[in-house]
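We emphasize that the prediction below concerns an isolated chain of 128 residues; any contacts that depend on oligomerization or on bound cofactors are therefore not represented. The input was used exactly as deposited, without trimming of termini.
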Amino acid sequence: MRWLLYLIFLNVTCMAQAAQVTKTRAIAEQLKCPTCVAQSVADSQASAAKEIRRIISQRLAQNKTEQEIITELTERYGEHILLTPPLTPSTYLLWFLPFVTFGLGLLIWFIPHTLNTVLSHLLPSRKD
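Result of the prediction step, given as a token string:
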């Protein structure tokens, strides 16, 4: 009977650890490694990324929420640690410049083609 209780306890402990590892990875995937270029904390093997993963695990063990952990790390390392920057007035250009550039490119392409079509219908064609 004692070994059965031990196995149940061991199983519950392993499940709790697996859940914490999964949650740590989910949070780490949202953060950019401070020393790597365009690599998440979850994927990086740099010492800074390992330290951040350790901090995340500690905060989860302290029953901190995901948002509390991300806020703490953002305050510590700055907004550049976020893989997806928040939509704020300082990042409007970052978020909307690709769409504006695409729209201007369409206009630059569309106006001359439309103008040529309209002019070819309005002006009589010359036949030699």
